[in-house]
Write a structure and sequence with these properties.
The chain is mainly β. It is built from 1 helix and 38 strands. The strands form 8 sheets. Strands 1, 2, 30, 31, 32, 33, 34 and 38 form an 8-stranded mixed sheet that branches. Strands 12, 13, 14, 15 and 16 form a 5-stranded antiparallel sheet that branches. Strands 25, 26, 27, 28 and 29 form a 5-stranded antiparallel sheet that branches. Strand 23 and strand 24 (299-303) form a beta hairpin. The longest helix has 5 residues, at 241-245.
Length: 492
């Protein structure tokens, strides 16, 4: 097997689990009928004390699948239940018990207006935002948009359960470069019933893909949301949650312009100005990493790789460089616009001043985000990335291209990337791995999901979900999943 364009890789199976009496817990689940770009999330669904996994999936766009959502037994990798959907479920699950059985129920969003509440024990639909209508043209209807990752907000309809804030936007038939697209919305939805409490149109009338964040910066709950996309200008906005409830975003403050493009991946909220107020650190689609002061909306610094780069990932926050207590940020950028990405550039940026202290090229297109933990057992934080790349193999005398994917670690967020495990044939389009401790034994479990089709990057079939436990302390996890701890995008 030959790696084609890695600039710096040291191959080392550094997460080997042998020795010291450690016995690895591992399993692998294959679901041939679907693929996924959803990131796994964990909660105990069967009451055995071990966290179970929930992941969204689907086949080709606009096809019905029996496994739009799959719950997996964290102990042995067996399917607990599946829920049907009429398109790809691309969001990641969040949880709340709304049935009173002391088991958390599952809330997850996806394409074609799919937003489900599922009973945690059985996968039965408790409610759905827009039940499937076979007479409706989901491809052509401009009111049928997409859901991404929702957030919990305090109960606003006074029914005893928290409610959902989510973005609703994106029209699949919009042609590249055509700015005439349906406007996106922020929705507040009852967690108990699924009924719409508020629907607020984007202030600039643009589409929206970015999962919003909710945070109190010191003056009550506010929402950070974004507009625009791969080739349509948009903005990053800040608005009071109360104004969303009033269905009026006209008073939203634009805190950053997207230039020729917009905002897709949500930001990280972290205090880099050391004033006790979280700041906003975000990757723009047009290839910038920007920090914005949470107290006054002023840009603190901007890091730009230079050249034609796009990005669809969140930055990974950690303490990688210098002796200060200001978090730094590891970010990934694709060379050239999707779908013509040539390679991925990774940057480590000093959170104190925005200086690029390390860069490396590694892999092809992906939009899984970086994770942070101590993998090298040296007391420092490291970066874990899910990486796609092309390989070549001799097939009956003919050198044939295949896709492969694997996990790689940048020790201390810089230097040569270390290969964590043997590479796997297939691709991981956008499923950020999960670092957790499923069985509460004190060791890190790494949960990954990828599509095991080695010839078709966007196959959406042959989903593989894998658990690998490593002899590293779970207490060393800092940023362990998509959108960080609890999926809120906040570095505490």
């Amino acid at each position: 097997m030959k790696h084609v364009f890695f600039s710096s890789i040291a191959v080392l199976l550094l997460l080997s689990t042998s020795g010291c009496g450690f016995e690895e817990d591992t399993w692998l689940l294959e679901i041939p009928s679907i693929g996924s770009s959803s990131s796994p999330a964990a909660t105990d669904l069967n009451g055995d004390g071990i966290l179970d996994l929930v992941i969204g999936g689907g086949g080709r766009e606009f096809t019905t699948t029996a496994a739009a959502v799959t719950a997996v037994d964290g102990n042995n990798g067996e399917v607990l239940w599946k829920a049907e959907g009429h398109n790809q479920m691309v969001g990641s699950a969040i949880f709340q018990d709304i049935t009173g059985d002391d088991v958390e129920d599952v809330f997850i969003g996806g394409r074609s207006a799919m937003l489900f509440a599922l009973e945690g024990t059985t996968g039965k639909k408790l409610w759905e935002f827009a039940p499937y209508d076979p007479t409706r043209s989901y491809v052509n209807d401009t009111t049928v948009l997409n859901f991404f990752n929702p957030q919990w907000i305090n109960d606003v309809d006074q029914d005893g359960t928290d409610d959902l804030l989510t973005a609703y936007g994106g029209f699949v038939k919009a042609e590249r470069g055509n700015a005439d697209r349906p406007a996106g919305y922020l929705l507040i939805i009852s967690g108990k019933t699924g009924k719409t409490i508020a629907k607020a149109r984007m202030p600039d009338g643009k589409e929206t893909y970015m999962s919003p964040l909710v945070h109190d910066f010191g003056q009550g709950a506010e929402v950070i949301f974004g507009t625009g996309g791969e080739d349509i200008n948009g903005g990053l906005y800040r608005v009071k949650l109360g104004q969303v409830l009033e269905e009026d975003l006209s008073k939203a403050v634009k805190i950053l312009d997207g230039a020729a493009k917009g905002f897709i991946a949500p930001p990280v909220l972290a205090d880099i100005s050391k004033d006790g107020i979280k700041d906003v650190i975000i990757c723009t689609v047009d290839g910038r990493l920007v920090s914005i002061d949470g107290s006054n909306n002023q840009v603190i610094w901007t890091a730009i790789p230079g050249g034609d780069f796009d990005t669809y990932t969140m930055p990974g926050p950690g303490f990688f460089t210098g002796d200060d207590d200001i978090p730094d940020f590891f970010a990934s950028f694709g060379k050239g616009p999707w779908p013509d990405t040539e390679y991925t550039l990774h940057l480590l940026v000093d959170g104190k001043n925005g200086e690029v202290v390390f860069s490396d090229t590694l892999g092809t297109f992906q939009y899984a985000s970086p994770l942070v933990a101590d993998f090298t057992n040296d007391g420092r934080q490291d970066v874990l990335l899910a990486i796609n790349y092309k390989t070549q193999q001799d097939v009956l005398g003919d050198m044939t291209d295949f896709y492969a994917n694997g996990l790689y670690v940048y020790p201390g967020g810089q230097g040569k990337a270390l290969q964590a495990f043997q590479p796997l044939l297939g691709s991981n389009l956008g499923s950020t791995p999960l670092l957790t401790d499923l069985d509460h034994d004190g060791y890190i479990d790494i949960i990954t999901a990828y599509m095991g089709d080695a010839r078709n990057f966007y196959s959406f079939k042959n989903l593989v979900v894998q658990r690998r436990e490593i002899s590293r302390q779970a207490s060393a996890i800092s940023w362990g999943g998509y959108m960080g701890p609890a999926g809120k995008g906040i570095l505490e």
